[in-house]
Specification:
There is one protein chain. A 4-stranded mixed sheet has the order 2-1-3-4, covered by helices on one side. The longest helix is centred in the middle third of the chain and has 23 residues. The protein has 219 residues and is of the alpha+beta class. It has 2 domains: 75 residues, Glutaredoxin, CATH 3.40.30; 132 residues, Glutathione S-transferase Yfyf (Class Pi), Chain A, domain 2 (Up-down Bundle), CATH 1.20.1050. The chain is 59% helix and 8% strand. The mean pLDDT is 94. Strand 1, helix 1 and strand 2 form a beta-alpha-beta unit. It has 9 helices and 4 strands.
């Protein structure tokens, strides 16, 4: 039995979870927090979640995990069959993660966790996010899914990452980062109804509630 290790508030954890559910792969979930004294976390090379436990052998990094899933459980396929279409699907994943989620992550401390970030960080992240939004607009198909007619790993990434990116941009800058991508609103609404995405989002809300409650407990 595969074990997905991490926690349901992590968007990278949820990216993998969506893929597992969409492929119909049986798996268990094991809560692993980010405490540095966690022995389980220390088994991950970069001490990060998520990681996948495959009969005691671990695979870390979300993209490596989903590539393993695609190789080991090829049906239903979550990549297009044609080589160019597969390349464009992977390109979309990189656009979402490197040019949108990664710069937005620099803002999460203030947007979600009550901290603050410098004006320089704000300015740098905004320029990167605007470039990322332009790249997404240039490559996304929305026909009806982000890479074409079928649900793919690019949709798993979009479902996991676009919401926190959008929320962070609105909270920090007061802007709709994706205002110039007209089809995106309807796409995200449709994506939210996909069974794997819907289930993951429901579980994420439960995990968020539990995390808030845990933080509110007196020490």
């Amino acid at each position: 039995m595969l074990k997905l290790c991490g926690f349901g508030v992590s968007n990278y954890y949820n990216k993998v979870k969506i893929a597992l559910l969409a492929k119909g792969i049986a798996f268990e979930e094991e809560y692993v927090g980010v405490s540095h004294d966690s022995l389980r976390l220390q088994a991950s090379p970069a001490r990060k979640i998520p990681f996948l436990d495959v009969d005691g052998v671990l695979i870390a990094e979300s993209q490596a995990i989903v590539e393993y899933l695609e190789d080991s459980y090829p049906q239903p396929a979550l990549y297009p069959a044609a080589a160019m279409a597969r390349a464009h699907c992977r390109e979309l994943i990189e656009i979402i993660e490197l040019y949108l989620e990664l710069p937005a992550r620099r803002l999460y401390r203030e947007a979600f966790f009550g901290g603050s970030v410098s004006q320089q960080t704000r300015d740098e992240a905004k320029a990167e996010l605007e470039r990322g939004a332009q790249a997404l607009a240039a490559r996304a198909k929305f026909s009806p899914y982000i890479a074409g007619a079928d649900f793919t790993h690019a949709d798993c990434a979009a479902a996991a990452h676009l919401a926190p990116v959008s929320i962070a941009a609105e909270k920090i800058y007061g802007i709709d980062l994706f205002a110039g991508i007209a089809p995106l609103r309807d796409y995200r609404k449709m994506l939210g109804q996909h069974p794997a995405v819907k289930k993951t989002n429901e579980d994420r809300k439960v995990a968020e509630t539990a995390m808030i409650a845990a933080r509110a407990k007196p020490v």
